[in-house]
Queue: 4 jobs
Job 1
Amino acid sequence: MRLASVFALAAGLGCILPWGSGGQAQTAAPAAAAQKLPYIYTHWRQFTTKDGLPNDHIFAVKADGPRVWIGTEGGLAMLDKRTGKIRSWTEKDGLPWRVITGIDVDKKTGDVWLALFGAGLARFSGGRFDHWHQMNSGLVNDVVYAVAVENDNVWAATTAGASRYNTVTKEWTVFTEKNAPMEEIWNYGVHYGDGKVHLAVWGSGILEYDVATGRWKDYLDPDGEMEIDLYRDDGIIHVITTGAGYVDKVLWVSSYFGASRYDGRHWRGFYNQDSGLPSDFINNIAVRSGNEAWFCTDKGLGAAVDVATNTWVAYTRDPKRNTGYAVVTRDKQVIETVETGLNIPHNYTISADINGNDVWIGTAKGLAWGIGKDYYPGLRERGVMTASARSASGGAR
Amino acid sequence: MKRICLALIAPLLFAQRPGDPPELRALIDPDTAEVLRRIDAVGPYEVPDLRLKQDTNYAKTPIDIEPYSGAKPYKEHFLVQMEYTGPRRAEPEPGPDLKSVKIGFIGPIMATVSVATGGASHEEALGIKMLQGAQLAIEQANARGGYLRRKIPFELVVSNDNGLWGASGNEIINMAYKDRVWGILGTIDGANSHIAIRVALKAEIVMVNSGDTDPTFIETNIPWVMRVISDDRQQSYLLMDYIIRKMNYRRIGIIRASNRYGRFGVREVRDSARRLQRPIILEMAYRVGAEDFSLQLERLKAANLDCIIHWGDAKESALILNQMRKMGMNQPYFASDRTVSDEFLAIAGKNAEGVICAYPWNPDRKDPKLDEFRKAFRARFNQEPETYAAHGYDGMNLLIWAIQVAGLNRAKIRDVLAYRSQPWPGVTGDIPFSATLDDLGEVFICRRENGAWKYYSREDLGIPRGYIPARDRVSRATGAIEPMK
């Protein structure tokens, strides 16, 4: 039964099954032999309304030390990692609007910035909510999908342009097609890192703002066509982008059509058909390094863990049983399938954050905490894990 | 085999849920019954096993106007239907104190200043007609008993989408989270439509579009969106087949509105012309609301064109035509479907004779449904229904059908629409859905003849069509394209 589930899962991921039709295991390498393999998260915790979340639909998650901020469809929550206790805020507590689609934390002040879906921008500071919207500020639109703190500035990705608020001077700057290379103005994601702000713009690819020079640069799909990707590695794979992350001077991009990576010299596209991405429909992205990025798809969580070898780990929940799997693939070939116990609470994943060795995943039905005990980046020599790793102490080492 | 057997017996076993009234059972065809059986059977973590629509060719595109037709693309999108894999099918229906079943309407119905639409708002005439079509559908459904499972009325929640910059997004959020509508019909303007559907995707509510012909509207991979009007891509394909393959015009010029409707409307015109070896000689844009087009027309006149194509609204279309004729420009005048209107005729007068437009349906079609709709519309509004009213009526009826059949669950409402196996029998004709849930129904040529609009199919006019391959581009052998002689 368990083996059958693993087969079904691998097939569901669109993987090339390493087993013959007779059910005889034919792994790519002998099970006992050590080979270079990625870390697998085998210790997970889940949180739902039963644990105190105001809603199970998790649009945003942001870890800030021991505090994990959670934006849901029904309010804001904060989980204390140390105690596992959850505190929540809804409109009756002063939260301006209950649907929260993005969160970032100002490292300097500790202020929590909230993207409100249809109600603008809010700051949670000292137990008080401050509220900015179209009618009382320079925010260009109230439908805010994402927020990012850049030095003294707060960037909001809205459905009708991007706004930047300087928390010191109180100045607002609006970026639309008038002053930025936005072919369309439908901003969807924003990320700050390594001196650059990246906007993921629906229909306008990725826009990069250099904080030092104030200059813009755009990344568009070179073929310019919606219905095809002419060449996989010639640029972003599609102009309808959903998120971006820039770490180690490497740009990762998510879209509803697949993923892209740019190291400053070479582009690489990733699709379900050629990688471990569980699906091409990617809601969001969290980037750990130039070599590792996590993609929230509608059919599970995909982590690119070693670019050079196209090695991925896909995490999915068994829809019928209270367990989950991690499938390691290399160039689409399954090299390891591990039953992890319940990992993500739902395969429709929406948001993610990386905090040290841990990962936080928001899904359409709860939050997951992947505990990265003894996490290691990239690949290491180790034996292939047995089907069930839940009982193995310490997870993947 | 198992699936076939289930499909055969499903109507007998699962055609209705317990307590469904007979008039509701009559709305459930065998395939929909099977969809209902499968979506009712899954819990929050499962995805129902439903047959995804698959197309072998995107948007019935002839091989010689496919982009980069000489190359094999790495990936071709939009050939397989998107799934909804979230948990909402398992959400319970609302309690018994529900007083009405709300359905949202969003469209340009109030005059205002709109940055999104290129200056002053200008689409109210279209939006109001679309609203009237939707209202009529709601009223008729209520006269038939309203929401049949609970015997409560449908209620239309109406909102305007051309207010503040990006207002359509706020309106969808209000409807989804505050009004708690079960589905939404709407939008005409392409920019507002894109804003609205992104919100619908996050809020997970179905949007049926009956008025936006922007081809990119559906090219977004959103599983919550469908369209019941043929888009500018389909209309452009027919128009360009007429202009180039049939009439053999060689020097083609474009004049268009500088808003999204004009910009994206002519994209397939421009691409088709280039790919058919007749690149557009000159394309001129004008500001929406302009009344003097001499700047553009002088340049177009100097280009010695065989014909001119206009993409924009009716008023500008008529003014351009009049100024063309006054300048001695007697070239054939082609236009998008918005030209087919009373407003155009009132301004263009006799110059309207001979104008040719692409059109998304055939209003002259003999169909008792259409006759009844016209009669009811006249009785209700004392006006003639036009294309936006008719498509609005079709879209709202489709949405009402889905809510009746699926029940009060947004995901299931989406499912019965998305997995509908048969074309929707609308007053605008049968509406077959592609894998992207776009309307791939027949489009027409509309010609002003002897003081009346006449509608012609491709076959009526003997318009040649390019070869449409039966295989997707990635798995098909690449062949050289013969240039047009």
Job 2
Amino acid sequence: MTCALVPGVPALLPAYASIEDPVADLRAACLAVVGALGPKVRVVAFSESGARVARHLLDAVGAEEVTDGQAPVLVVANGSAKRAPTAPGHFDERAEAFDDDLRRALLEPLPTALGAIDAQLADEMWADVAAIRTLGDLLAPGDRAEVGYDDAPYGVQYWVVRWV
Amino acid sequence: MTLRLGRRSFADDATLMMAIVNRTPDSFYDRGATWAEDAAFERVAAVVEQGAEIVDIGGIKAAPGEEISAGEEKDRVVDFVARVRASYPSLVISVDTWRAEVGAAACAAGADVLNDAWGGADPELVDVAAEHDAAIVCTHTGGVTPRTRPFRVEYDDVVAAAIGDTVAYAERALAAGVARESIVIDPAHDFGKNTFHSLEVTRRLGEMVATGWPVLVSLSNKDFVGETLGLPVGERLVGTLAATAVCALAGARIYRVHEVVEARQAVDMVWSIAGRRPPRRAIRGLA
């Protein structure tokens, strides 16, 4: 099944638009990956901002949100928000290793690892990973990940990935 | 309403900085600093670099003083307008004059706006604006003679008078053939007004904005700021910016200023507070 991952970054929302887009590259990557999912998309997002971002991205590419279990899936989640002293959650020395493990599990992919993320550690890392566990059910070991974005420009780890 | 100032049009939500450029030896603020043509030209370059959308070139100081003939005023202004136009093809050039004869020559040299600070003292100025498809600024002076100071002026309601006169002037410009989108009104702080009048006009500027005509305010370093704070020329920037902020919140569109950078920051900040302008770059709490 086709699925994609984007981060639930509120700066992507029109209500929070700036004159100079602080997330221009991320936005472009999100639109490309969501646009490639097709006209009907199922959304898996557990945070309020994540759900809003998903709705906005679907609107922006003209896609419709459906609950059909067979539809391509858009998962909204991100890594740690403690990657730098200027990060929302300040710096935590465990954050980079946490994100490295998560990156490997996403990109290999390792469905079992994705389904078994340490929830307490994720909370401590301010990582929005609840929706990623769903990927453990959706992905198979042979799926190929196409990475559209992999960076932590504001101390929060974002990935934009599409699996085919 | 979209605003068109000669060769340039501006969106409904745009605010504009009109930088004062004096070709005078005796204006109150700069005291002749840009009297020499090259100095005035350097001032134009500086304010363009600072982001001013408009330069307002004037050849006669507003206060009483030596009589300046129309010929002398043209000598000071017209060739200079042509020089600025040649160097800045898309800059909006305004000329601060009440005389139709001077306005016509300035428009022929490339001016976009006739800023009549004296409330239509020369009835033919609107015809010049129409003929050259220039914009016109319609100010309120209470009917005083150009270059006179207010003396014991009384109004039943200064804001009603300002609205009545400027809107009547605007309608007269429209009837003369000036494009509707090229007519601006200005309550003209300190012109025909004491400090209490100028403070009230500032406080109630929203009533002028509500007329629908785009509003210009000229507040910069004026005596109503100085008297209110007890400060001389040269120490009025903070007071100017406070008044600027109040006018911006009310929705003024054009700001005639000495200090472009400071006024632009004040107006942008207020415009964003009012929800009319996005922040430059907001990521705090949104990453």
Job 3
Amino acid sequence: MVPFAGYEMPLQYRGIIAEHLHARSQAVLFDVSHMGQAILRGDGASEVLESLVVADLQGMAAGTERYTLMTNERGGIIDDLMVIQGGYYMVLVVNAARKDLDFAHLREHIGDRCQFDIREDRALLALQGPAAANVLARLAPPCRHMMFMTIENLKIGDIRCGISRSGYTGEDGFEITVPTEDAEQLARMLLQEPEVKPAGLGARDSLRLEAGLCLFGNDIDETTTPIEAGLTWTINKRRREEGGFPGAEIILRQMAEGPTRKRVGLQLDGKVPARAGTRITDRWGKELGVVTSGGYGPTVGGPVAMGYVDAEHAAPKTLVNLIVRGKPLAGRVAKLPFVDHRYAK
Amino acid sequence: MANVRFTSDHEWVRIEGDIGVVGITEYAQEQLGDIVFVELPEVGAQLEKGAEAAVIESVKAASEINAPVSGEVVAVNEGLADDPGKVNADAMGEGWFFKVRLADPQELEDLMKPAAYKELVAGLK
């Protein structure tokens, strides 16, 4: 167990590599109840929330989910979050370490335009892996036919669940919000299924790193823009044309002119992992940037990392050195993700 | 086990004549979790007791290993390059790190005997 964002979280159960590989071959269950959940109700809720995030929320059909970014006036990222469009309400799922700040920010800017409530009484479980759909369909048959990034409100046994087909591993899977008092029972039901094993924060991090997904505080923060972070895809045509989110002018200008630095994947030639904070240079020692996430990728079978480099050195296969314990280690810029996504399209 | 000594940093030294074989303990490998790389000293390097001698990279983090005794490195466990998981599987055997020619056998007196180390670990669990 390790402290994380004010919670005691399991770093691992059987071992990070075993849990990671099980998520890629079968299914694992994460307890991610530390994440912040909130609900926004009221006429024009989508329009109101659009003034704080980059996504096109008004264009979302009811029953769909979108990944988006809350931005600041400098074009930096306050947090990355999931928004579920319920039609007459929207559910937000934000990072644990940011939830107090996020919710205060949302309260302040939403004001009395909509009703904003934090859902303290909800837990969140994530069932991830290629077997997840078979497992969940056994308990809630309609799950099998859900599309990626859609939601259904279904009962598992007597437990009322908000289920979305989504995740943070690059694999197919589901995220399930339940009343806190039902969470343990649901977790035990899922863990009883033969394909499912529990997984901790360690595997969650190595899975998302191989999948090229950002971790707030490492790969994105208030000083990185969506463009630098390679998250331009989260801003659709209408939002690019209309702007209307904090920092839009800076972000849209950067999109037109190109950023000076970019988030890239980094693959090392050897076996030594390069951790967050590792300096990146070109082969002659010129500073290019810094690693923001790095470690061992169990599916890749070697070290994998992400970081920011000067835009002119961001092309895949560009040769770089990573300075680990004072020694330059040979590596190259790599295409993200390291492991292909296998979402249910 | 009588000829094995331990440090409070969870390293062991097995004494074979004037040679000390060095590794990390079962408790250390458990704490580190899956080990993916071990950076070993070079054969011929002069190690000083207490100074950094090796680095262990686990999935979680990098950890430094300090030399439990002083002396010249006479061999390193080449097998760890291909299979660093040997440290997890057999920390006190196949997972050894390096062999050092003891510069000062007196240094062994500062290390813990098996019973004392066992007691230390029992207190940590």
Job 4
Amino acid sequence: MEKRSRGFYVLAAFFGLFVLFLYGPILTIGILSFQGPQGGLTFPMNGVSTYWFRDLFQEQAVGDIWGAFRRSTMLGLMVMITTVVVSVMAGLAFRKRFAGSGVLFYAAITSLVIPSILISLGVGLIFNQLGLKIHWATSGFGAQLTWTLPFGLLIMFAVFNRFDKSYEEAARDQGATAWQTLRHVVLPIIAPSLIGVGLFGFTLSYDEFARTLLTSGSYNTLPLEIFGMTTNVTTPVIYALGTLTTAFSFAIIAAFLLGAWIMGKRRARLGSDAGKGL
Amino acid sequence: MRLTNRQVIGWLEAAPLTLVLLAFLIAPIVMIVIVSFWGATEFSIYPAFQLDNYEFLFSSPVTYKVFGATLKYAFITWALTLAIGFTVAYFMAFHVRSQTVQIALFLVCTIPFWTSNIIRMISWIPFLGRNGIANQTLISWGVIDQPLEWLLYSDFSVILAFVHLYTLFMVVPIFNTMMRIDKSLLEAARDNGASGLQTLLHVILPLTKPGIMIGTIFVVTLVMGDFITVRFMSGSQRANVGRLISNDIGLLQYPSAAATAVVLLCTVLIVIAILLRFVNIRKEL
């Protein structure tokens, strides 16, 4: 091994500062959410307590945090499942270079780069003019898909660009039908990446603000509820909520990553039966 | 015959994505374009074909000021996220030797992306406020006597939040491209006597361009389309195009909001079209 250059230490320090910049603020509100009952929105700490967390679980003067949390989780799951299924299907389609694939691809890119407020406004207007009821599970659901699906599709492109076609050919040579090849060869191979697509689907939906703003109707999702609180709540209770939902996000991310890791391990252990006379 | 079968299956597989995009992307855009020609009273909108909304938009000096501010935010954020993102990606790709550490550091950089933007914005308040950590620290060090007023609710805090939220959109594509650079090219450069800086400028930088372009597209479009960061971090004291639109929506002036949205969309698409000339996205994934 060659010796580390001075450049390495400079860059490592820069990287450390960047990580501090990324996580410092959220750690700060994590600490501040344990303010004593008399504590304010900034340091110094006025005692240490779980007062503001308990406050969260009590009847709130404004809003409906737990209802919003339930709705956001539900919506996140709906978006996650839809994103995985639709992205995989579209990913398979794009391997076939069907007529119109170029247009569809550019539509997906447009979906990614279009300012979110346009989706919010447009979907809201359509539902209004058609006399449909604006609801998080219909208009909100669709609006969020325009944000999660392009990510799912891009991941599928990345996956299929690295996919070794000879596995499929081998299956076909041994007489597998197209469906059998898909079910028993392609899907198991790409399964770990699907966990990634699911992670994007759930978290992007759970945290989405702009696209849900005008499309969620009379019941708020959690980000909308939190944003509403910023204008009329001036106690650390908002930090307690921020800390809790960030902890929830971290737990979800950890679960997904753990899932992908376990899958990888299992595959390494059980993956190949070559030379075992099976 | 085989070929047509393949086509049909391809279409069937693409159908769900197509339907979602038709219903929730294309139709809303069409709707916004239509409504941008409609008229509005104080409490309702009515179908019409009039150019009043655009006339008003283009004749108002506010429009130009706000579009200018939007481009300014986009440009400054782009420059900062590129500088930071490139350095971070460069460190991870070329200075970290173990692949496990590389993956771990990469995850550290991407995890905030899966958490809430709103909360990440709120979390700056104890830092930047009048009695926040930054002011307290600077006063205790004797750097300043009085709290700095421009830390929160200013252009500074808006751009800080943008950089905080969006740098990882630069890090990820740049890192991805860097990881695919053949390491033997770097050795060749060194064997031929290139200094570290020369290798960086003449080998790594050109090869990283596609990643930079993808990151640029993300950052520029996210900043140009934003309305909530500017509203929150400036305490409603600064404006960008997104806020212009959301203010009109708040006043139920949908046709005028739609007209502004159409102009914003055109601006964003022109910027993207220019950037896409430099990169083939599908090849880079």
